[in-house]
Design a protein that fits this description.
111 residues
């Protein structure tokens, strides 16, 4: 009877060792759980970004207003019948008032 008790205690000790220090142990589980939580937060951010991008593409596909807005902001285009005002600064410091749009900069430099 004493031998069986020793064997069972030894077996219990081995199982406890494996539970706390072996492969797929409790610390490994907790680390993976934290990684899953972090990945879910990253996925939520990406889902939100994708929603914004889908809304933007849908707006570009269906509406003219978004296309006009992009043409104005990114390409510096104007509509027919609109008046375009250009502010000219003195040539003392050319780079100080440079516009971010290269098309407008080329227009300024060519005149």
């Amino acid at each position: 009877m004493r031998v069986i008790t020793v064997i069972l205690v030894l077996f219990l000790g081995l199982l406890q060792y494996r539970l706390w220090f072996g492969k797929n142990s409790v610390p490994d589980y907790l680390a993976l759980e934290n990684e899953v939580d972090r990945q879910q937060v990253d996925n939520d951010k990406l889902r939100q970004r994708n929603k914004i991008l889908y809304a933007d593409t849908d707006d570009l596909k269906s509406g003219v207003e978004a296309i006009e807005e992009r043409a104005r902001n990114e390409l510096g285009m104007i509509k027919e019948g609109e008046t375009f005002f250009r502010i000219v600064y003195p040539n003392k410091d050319k780079n100080r008032h440079r516009n971010k749009d290269p098309a407008i900069n080329n227009l300024k430099e060519s005149q």
